[in-house]
Write a structure and sequence with these properties.
heterodimer; A: alpha/beta; Rossmann fold; 6-stranded mixed beta sheet; 4-stranded antiparallel beta sheet; 10 helices; 10 strands; B: mainly alpha; ABC transporter involved in vitamin B12 uptake, BtuC; two-stranded antiparallel ribbon; globular; hydrolase (chain A); EC 3.6.1.3 (chain A); AAA+_ATPase (chain A); ABC_transporter-like_ATP-bd (chain A); transport (chain A)
């Protein structure tokens, strides 16, 4: 579904990603793991057309993405729930959700809105409230709901768990599995590698801008060097 | 007592013209972080257009208003899309420099076409007034205030409830998330600048109906819009109304007490006080 080949990206003169290769098959949950500064967010921004790639290609369903504008990429069915959520803080929860469906012209937007409120009753209670006044967990629900309102085929999730209580993280990640069950492919970017790999089919490990490791989740979870580096376990 | 009430009334009515001007200025500033130094010259240009339409075609300025609005909407759209968008994401200094240059070009273009002499839009009702309860209501200024209330309401409804208006607000809150929703920021900006240019043109027609003007009159209009915007709060739909009324009344009262020569002391003194005490404006929210 998505195939990234030999991708290099940077800011200004500084190269941040070196020769990245990554593939995602339809219906998969793929985890992308790495510490702060490894280049995970840079990779997602490049996928969304927010950063121009230096070299390499990004193909999505056979179409080259690397020179497309962000709005075209969104139109193709790829959606990013950005790190830090980036909600429209001065707008109500409902307006934020409707912004997610901005490109849609079909008649089922209302129906999907109700579906989001069923998934997140907390958002339903606060739909008229300004998004900036929500708690961190609620904001993350709103950001995820906003992405889902676009009916993405490929959903990119950047650090959903950041700064949230473990119980909220569990709930959101379980929901990701449910979303996949409904036909959405997911690229899950996380620092919380155990939680991520427990739910992903496969994983990639990004270190210092290079893809250091990849494989099925169980293999990565039992990999000794990963366990030492990320979980502090021998 | 009656005299003072009339003076205050004059100030309130003057607030209409100030407010319409600020409605446009504040929209550009609030959505695009653009301080448009050519704003006043846009308005003077609209006043000249209304004057020409009246003199050559006998078209009343109020009937010409929708046409002038559309011309400026289209012109503003193209100007933003073709030129201003190229520097808008740079630092504030670049957009100040560009709009300063634009102001220069516009002002000299108007001198070329209309000479530097003072002109006016001469309608039969330009200097007439309505009388009510012993007070004088200059027709043009009274209509300007009514227009300001209606335009503020329409702008608010548009921004709050239309799909495009929501896109404009979303963009004002963050271009990156707006892009991630699939918005084309250059188009949103062009539309915003077009809309505010149209509003500026309406303000310019009212100004031309109630004042003599020359190509050099744009500068003070820009400063007025700046002060009113700061007073009311940047990027609020009702701020220009509030700011316009405050500045209008203070100018009117001040020019009687201090003499009309010193009225700028009030304008700028007020600006200073507001920036120190409440930099977000009367209606503005903290940290936008």
């Amino acid at each position: 579904m998505l195939a990234i080949k030999d991708l290099s990206v940077g800011y200004g003169d500084t190269k941040v990603l070196w020769d990245i290769n990554l593939e995602i098959a339809p219906g998969e949950i793929v985890a992308l793991i790495g510490v702060n500064g490894a280049g995970k967010t840079t990779l997602l921004k490049t996928l969304m057309g927010l950063l121009p790639p230096w070299t390499g290609s990004i193909r999505y369903r056979g179409q080259e993405l690397s020179r497309l504008d962000t709005h075209r990429i969104v139109k193709l069915g790829i959606n990013l729930t950005p790190q830090g959520r980036l909600l429209f803080t001065g707008m109500s929860v409902e307006e934020n959700l409707l912004m997610g469906a901005y490109l849609r012209r079909d008649s089922e937007v209302k129906h999907d809105l109700k579906h989001i409120y069923d998934l997140f009753p907390r958002l339903s209670e606060r739909k008229r409230q300004r998004a900036g006044t929500l708690s961190g967990g609620e904001q993350q629900m709103c950001a995820l709901g906003r992405s889902l309102m676009s009916r993405p085929s490929l959903l990119l999730l950047d650090e959903m768990s950041l700064g949230l209580a473990p119980i909220v993280v569990e709930m959101l990640l379980d929901l990701v599995v449910e979303i996949r069950g409904q036909g959405t492919t997911v690229l899950l970017v996380e620092q919380d590698i155990e939680e991520a790999l427990l739910r992903a089919d496969r994983g990639y490990v990004l270190e210092g801008g290079r893809m250091e490791m990849s494989g099925p989740s169980p293999d990565l979870l039992s990999n000794a060097s990963l366990r030492v580096a990320y979980l502090g376990l021998a | 007592m009656h005299l003072w009430l009339q003076i205050i009334l004059n100030g309130i009515l003057q607030g209409g013209i100030l407010g319409i001007s600020a409605l446009a200025f504040s929209l550009q500033w609030g959505v695009m972080n653009l301080i448009n130094l050519a704003h006043g010259s846009f308005q003077i240009l609209a006043a000249y257009v209304a004057m020409v339409l009246l003199q050559r075609l006998g078209l009343d300025p109020f009937l010409a208003m929708p046409l002038v609005f559309l011309i400026f909407l289209a012109g503003g759209y193209l100007l933003q899309f073709g030129i201003i968008n190229r520097v808008i994401s740079g630092n504030l200094f670049m957009t100040l420099l560009l709009t300063y240059g634009l102001d220069f070009v516009l002002a000299n273009f108007m001198i070329l076409l209309f000479t530097a002499d003072y002109k006016s839009v001469n309608t039969p009702y330009a200097n007439s007034s309505w009388h009510l309860l012993g007070f004088q209501f200059p027709i043009v200024r009274t209509l300007a205030l009514i227009f300001l209330v209606i335009l503020s309401l329409l702008l608010w409804l548009f921004l709050e409830y239309s799909r495009t208006g929501r896109a404009i607000r979303a963009t004002s809150m963050g271009t990156e998330p707006a892009r991630l929703m699939g918005l084309k920021i250059p188009k949103v900006y062009a539309l915003t600048f077009g809309l505010s240019s149209g509003l500026a043109a309406i303000g310019g027609i009212f100004f031309g109906l109630s004042n003599a003007f020359s190509p050099a009159a744009g500068g003070p209009l820009t400063v007025g819009a700046f002060v009113v915007t700061i007073l009311g709060g940047v990027g609020t739909s009702w701020g220009p109304l509030v700011g316009g009324l405050i500045l209008g009344v203070l100018d009117a009262v001040g020019s009687v007490i201090l003499g009309p020569t010193y009225v700028n002391i009030i304008t700028f003194g007020l600006l200073l006080i507001i920036l120190i005490l409440r930099p977000t404006g009367v209606l503005g929210r903290a940290a936008t």
